[in-house]
Write a structure and sequence with these properties.
Blueprint: E1 6-12, H1 20-31, E2 38-42, H2 44-53, H3 58-65, H4 70-73, E3 75-76, E4 82-85, H5 87-96, E5 109-115, E6 120-124, H6 130-136, E7 141-143, E8 146-148, E9 151-155, E10 171-177, H7 191-203, H8 207-211, E11 216-218, H9 234-249, H10 254-257
Parallel strand pairs: 1-2, 1-10, 2-5, 4-7, 10-11
Antiparallel strand pairs: 3-4, 5-6, 5-9, 8-9
Length: 263
């Protein structure tokens, strides 16, 4: 058996504002002595992933991103290529990121975006950080695509909302955080709500099969009660991720998981 490049790989799904739960997941993992050696993220997972890989703690990221208002994250736009402007994320990245390219990050990172021109998922791990992150979080219809080298990119969750592929065969231990559970919704009205619901459903495909490949998989069902475009409950979402991870860790022997002892 060939040696793996990394010990622990962390995969962070998309899920809009539900991504705040990723921070609780990481906080609980860190408290248990579990630190990722490589991260792969889509959309909200890419945003959380890049800030964590840049050296920020989960609680510091929560403070950076918790503006408390949806309008602080997005503004209405002329509906030509997107209904909203992703201004809040752009501002956070511009003012907070210390690393300007992937190579400068403290932890290796893979960012997933969807190539609209060629119809495929693309996994960025080199070059400029800013554009791939914004592209990865640009939900189609709601936000306009991001141009990179003449190609239009949108949210990575369209084709790969749990981007295991870039690190699947490179890690001894795989941990997944999935914040996009889809449950029953009685009332669906309005263009933005319909677009949001449709996108959420498309992102949930193939998750059950992928989940089997992780050594530790956290997917709090409680998150289905929260909308992806509602950042106003950041602390609640953080706690859901934190508590779910603490409970999940009770089911495993952490020393065995980390290879510190054998059974």
């Amino acid at each position: 058996m060939s040696a793996k490049q990394y010990k622990i790989g962390l995969v962070l799904s998309g899920g809009g504002a539900r991504g705040f739960a990723h921070l609780g997941v990481i906080e609980a993992l860190n408290e248990s002595g579990i630190y990722p050696d490589v991260i792969s993220g889509t959309s909200a997972g890419a945003i959380i992933g890049v800030l964590y890989a840049d050296g920020y703690s989960p609680k510091k990221i929560l403070n950076l991103m918790n503006t408390g208002s949806r309008l602080d994250f997005m503004r209405p736009a002329l509906p030509r290529e997107g209904l909203l402007q992703i201004n809040g994320i752009i501002k956070i990245l511009k003012t907070s990121l210390r690393s300007k390219n992937f190579k400068e990050l403290k932890i290796p990172l893979f960012v997933t975006a969807t190539d609209l021109n060629n119809g495929k998922a693309v996994y960025f791990s080199e070059g400029n950080l800013y554009d791939p992150i914004v592209a990865s979080a640009s939900i189609p219809v709601l936000f306009q695509p991001v141009k990179i080298d003449g190609i239009s990119y949108v949210d990575g969750g369209v084709l790969d909302n749990l981007p295991l592929r870039p690190i699947e065969n490179k890690c001894r231990i795989l941990i997944g955080s999935f914040v996009n559970p889809v449950g029953y919704m009685e009332k669906i009205s309005g263009l933005i709500n319909i677009a949001e619901r449709t996108f959420m459903l498309s992102m949930s495909k193939e998750i059950f099969e992928k989940a089997k490949k992780f050594d530790l998989f956290i997917a709090p069902l409680e998150l289905r009660n929260y909308k992806i475009l509602d950042p106003e409950k950041a602390h609640e979402l953080f706690e859901i991720g934190y508590n779910a991870t603490k409970e999940k860790l009770k089911e495993v022997d952490i020393d065995v998981l980390l290879g510190l002892k054998f059974v």
